[in-house]
Design brief:
Pnp Oxidase, Chain A; 8 helices; globular; Flavin-nucleotide-binding protein; Split_barrel_FMN-bd
């Protein structure tokens, strides 16, 4: 089985807490990536050499950057897209200025989290959640090959429709749109997933206390996010396509 198994406890993807919930196999990591519609991308803004910093640049250097973005996965690569002057796109277009070494390619962390339920316990300190999450680590690169760029853009768009072919059901993008949109590829070098699907777990003394058990409800409250009924735009004159109408009442999270 293909795996991102860490080689040591110092590896960036080694899960230190609740290790029994950790998964490093490609299948689990990829399923969670494919199920999520929104990723959080962590990156660092490169420092500018031989320049006087502004207050904005000082602030960017002081704090790590994390931005929510839509995305897609193709094989072992995560793709993002954004406007050519966007901060995350500029920061991850690499390599770092003044260096041609692959080691200096900008690094990124991509996380996806899905909340599947509230676990309600007798004690507030034992309340918890059912969830699926994944953390991926890799070096970023600007996608310059046209075929790879178009393929990534197509997958990013269609992923939002759970595979519905929205890219094909759109007018063709023009040169300005193509040139002002950058696509960033993050080749996954390390990753870890965590999952929890369980009921409440309370202290034995509380469970065996009739007064507490009869007074306080315990159990699991599933969390389900679904697509609603499509609403026409003010200028719409077309029929709702089948791939859109089929989304109504369907879970936004695949593999749930």
């Amino acid at each position: 089985m293909a795996t991102y198994e860490p080689t040591s406890s110092k590896a960036v993807n080694f899960v230190k807490r609740l290790r029994e919930r950790a998964h490093y196999d490609h299948e689990t990591v990829h399923k969670i990536l494919d199920a999520g519609l929104l990723a959080h991308v962590g990156f660092k803004v490169p420092k500018k050499k031989n320049s006087v910093k502004s207050d904005t640049e000082d602030s960017e250097d002081e704090y790590p950057n994390v931005i929510p973005m839509i995305f897609c996965r193709i094989g072992q690569t995560i793709y993002l897209h954004g406007y050519i002057s966007g901060r995350v796109v500029k920061a991850l277009s690499g390599p770092v200025a003044g260096s041609t070494s692959e080691e200096q390619a900008p690094k990124a962390t991509v996380t996806v989290s899905i909340m599947d339920g509230l676990i309600v316990a007798l004690s507030s300190m034992h309340n918890s959640n059912n969830y699926r999450s994944v953390c991926c680590f890799g070096k970023a690169r600007l996608v310059e090959d046209r075929d790879e760029k178009i393929k990534a853009l197509t997958e990013i768009v269609d992923k939002q429709f759970l595979g519905g072919k929205k890219w094909d059901d759109s007018r063709e993008i023009n040169d300005i749109e193509y040139k002002t949109t950058r696509v960033i590829a993050i080749d996954i070098e390390a990753a870890s997933a965590k999952k929890k699907f369980a009921g409440p777990k309370d202290d034995k003394e509380d469970i065996e206390n009739p007064e507490v058990v009869k007074k306080i409800w315990t159990g699991v409250i599933p969390i389900k996010s679904v697509f609603g009924k499509p609403e026409d735009s003010d200028y719409n004159e077309a029929q709702v396509p089948e791939y859109v109408s089929n989304l109504e009442n369907k879970s936004i999270y695949l593999y749930q």
